[in-house]
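Appendix B. One record, verbatim.
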Amino acid sequence: MRNALRRRWLKSAAALGLLGPAGISGLIQEALAKGDLPVTPGIQSLTGTVTVNGQSAKVGTPVKVGDRVATGAKSSAVVVVGKDAYLLRDNSTIVLEESKALPGLLGEVSVLTGKVLSVLEKRLRDQRIQYRVPNATIGIRGTGFYVELYPERTYFCLCYGEAAIDGKGMSEPKLVKSTHHESPLWLDDRGGSMKAEPGPFMNHTDDELIMLERLTGREPPFVAMGLTGKY
């Protein structure tokens, strides 16, 4: 099982540019050789144009709470911050905001543009992360999920775990639970009230989730359940 997972990780890592012509690139080569994960936080891989706080980034550029990471056209980045990891596709921007109640810790992630796959370490109840998209706030304690922003609505797939979705006109947050991508949603507040309607599974993969979790020293829970291979 572990060898199979490593093969899947390497396949996804190669597709995302973590592997070079001579093998695994800089930051994770030694970690993988020793089995010593998670890796050092920061930019793990990138293609095209990526910035941190408006400055050009490269592999190894540090990223911390309080920073803004953005990708340009035909660009992408894999980012580790603490024990959380993010895959930003093209034309994507996230802001990692400090908790007002717990200084120094991540309190909010704002996705301003684009498409972002995230895996977050499980938090205590009072450390829940607020994940903000233009038309909704999603409360997360520790899970994997994908968001893709459109002009009039947001695509949200809770890949595994729990989330609480809140938006305009909702009397109370909508609690969503998932084991393996069971309930992708369109979040649409046109008409003055948030609607969370069933959507398709699209534009992210199990291999990408395995890769991100592996960078933080974990594996997705669906792996132990034998559910890999469908997505």
